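A.,

Following up on our hallway conversation. Structure tokens first:
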């Protein structure tokens, strides 16, 4: 469900209250989406498939074991 492109550009307000629109691709688009998700109360887990969550959980457990955590 994650994409390298931000969803559609949305209007923003600058410091003077004037609207402007920006678009982004690749890493910057991901960063903007991540920060927008924070503001909207969306967690990264909400955007992951069940399979991705399981794979990530397994990878984190492997890293914890290698680091001597748990």
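Then the amino acids I'd put at each of the 70 positions:
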């Amino acid at each position: 469900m994650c994409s390298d492109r931000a969803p559609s550009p949305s209007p923003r307000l600058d410091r003077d209250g004037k609207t402007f629109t920006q678009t982004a691709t690749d890493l910057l688009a991901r960063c903007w989406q991540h920060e927008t998700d924070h503001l909207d109360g969306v967690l990264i887990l909400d955007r992951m498939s069940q399979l991705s969550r399981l794979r990530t959980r397994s990878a984190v457990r492997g890293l914890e074991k290698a680091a001597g955590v748990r």
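The chain has a mean pLDDT of 84. Curious whether your intuition agrees with the design.

B.
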